């Protein structure tokens, strides 16, 4: 028995006309047995399959592309990729006690909510290079001594006298969970000018 296949397609290009494939099933002793298969819907089936495949591939790739873009720019509102940053100032004049942590109670910006306006402490949310700054102004005829503290360790000292401010501008490598804040020195009888003349801020420059 000899089994062979021979394809013959209707030459008409009219989509409304049927298209068939002729397949020889048996050709023995000049007595052919032929089966005809209708291929009219073959193109549509292939088209539907290709569209479905492309859509599935797109659905898989779009979230990957979105994630890549967000990681590149480092910011998306409400997501963990926000670049941590805060700025807070002092509303009213205060007379800090020796070694008192200064609480900057007017929060202007707190992306990532890493600054605590109740304790005055910024808890580092991610490892990285941060820029930390502050201006701490003394009252008329008064001195003001403060320090930047990291994890209970003195990092920088600041001094102001008679409306002259102590200022802080520093790039710092910080690790997740570390705490930075401003603490008054151990001196008594000093005043820090509020009314938003004294402020404290930090933001992430680059994640490490």
**Regions with little confidence, pLDDT below 50 for 5+ residues:** 1-12
Report the biggest beta sheet as strand number plus sense, adding barrel if it closes: 5 strands, antiparallel
In helices, the fraction of residues equals: 10-25%
Number of strands: 12
* Helix-strand pattern: EEHEEEEEEEEEE
Rounded average pLDDT: 80
Cα gyration radius (Å): 37 Å
Portion in strands: 35-45%
- Tally the helices: what do you get? 1
How far from one another are the termini? Answer: 74 Å
Query: If strands are numbered along the chain, what order do they take across the biggest sheet?
Result: 4-3-12-7-10
Structure classification: alpha+beta
Main location: secreted
Protein name: C1QL
Pfam family, one: C1q
Domain C1q: 79-208
Present the secondary structure layout.
Layout: E1 20-28, E2 31-38, H1 42-73, E3 85-89, E4 106-111, E5 115-116, E6 121-123, E7 128-137, E8 143-150, E9 153-161, E10 165-174, E11 179-184, E12 199-207
Antiparallel strand pairs: 1-2, 3-4, 3-12, 5-6, 6-11, 7-10, 7-12, 8-9, 8-11
């Amino acid at each position: 028995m000899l089994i062979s296949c021979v394809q013959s397609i209707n030459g008409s290009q009219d989509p409304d006309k049927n298209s068939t494939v002729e397949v020889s099933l048996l050709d023995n002793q000049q007595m052919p047995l032929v089966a005809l298969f209708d291929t009219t819907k073959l193109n549509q089936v292939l088209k539907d399959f290709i569209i479905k495949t492309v859509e599935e591939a797109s659905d898989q790739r779009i979230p990957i592309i979105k994630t890549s873009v967000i990681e590149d720019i480092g910011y998306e509102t409400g997501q963990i990729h926000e670049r941590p940053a805060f700025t807070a100032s002092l509303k009213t004049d205060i007379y800090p006690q020796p070694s008192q942590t200064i609480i900057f109670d007017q929060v202007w910006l707190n992306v990532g909510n890493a600054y605590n306006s109740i304790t005055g402490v910024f808890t580092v949310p991610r490892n990285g290079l941060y820029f930390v700054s502050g201006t701490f102004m003394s009252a008329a005829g008064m001195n003001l001594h403060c320090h930047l503290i990291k994890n209970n360790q003195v990092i920088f000292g600041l001094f102001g006298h008679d409306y002259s401010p102590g200022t802080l501008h520093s790039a710092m490598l910080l690790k997740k969970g570390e705490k930075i804040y401003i603490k008054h020195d151990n001196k008594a009888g000093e005043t820090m000018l509020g009314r938003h003349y004294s402020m404290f801020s930090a933001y992430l420059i680059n994640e490490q």
